[in-house]
Amino acid sequence: MNRPIIVFDLDGTLVDTAPDLLDSLNHCLGAGGVAHTDTAGFTQYVGHGGRVMIERAYAAQRKALTIDEHDRLFALFLEHYGAGIPGKSRPYPGVLTALDRLESAGYMFAICTNKTEAFSRKLIGALGMSHRFAAICGADTFAFRKPDPRHLFETIAKATGDRGRAVMVGDSRTDIDTAKAAGIPVVAVDFGYTDRHVREFEPSIIISHFDELTDELAARLIETASA
Questions:
Q1: Where would you tag: which of 48, 67, 97, 126 has the fewest CB atoms within 10 A of its CB?
Q2: For 150-175, how does the pLDDT look when each residue is reduced to its tens digit (9 = 90+)?
């Protein structure tokens, strides 16, 4: 029997990447001749990706955005973000201690994210965390992505984990919907990037700090799901 596995989303769950993503947004907005955004007010859109962030910034300022200009700015966004990794991005408080605690209890880990695999690997590597994850699967790893449950299933398979003893941890409706479609319990963090509180999407449980992600909690969720 394979080891139980905890699969994490990345941005807004394991790592606070908002400062760098918002810096990249303002970089490309400046290149487009548009005023910089109020970064505090735009954090909720970070989880939707660079294209949506650019769209929202233009809409907020009532500026027209052509398809060609959108493509140009998104390319600048990616170039700026990729060149700066890890920048100001850091694991959330308690992440490393939680991974140590859960690994000691026999759990393995993987990442299932809608960030590209290359950026995900670069970020996790730059933060010195690569050795902790049996698989890092991004939006372009497979021909499908979250909320398609196959993204989660294939991530677990790539890590040689046991989908019957798996838990998903995420910060958004996309993560919660993915886990539910896969029949896998899901822990939602309430400090990530979402414009609606995660309670609205009815995860298995909500935590406000990684100190709450214990082996006892994971085991209880797995046991309840398999009952």
A1: 67
A2: 999 999 999 999 999 999 999 999 99
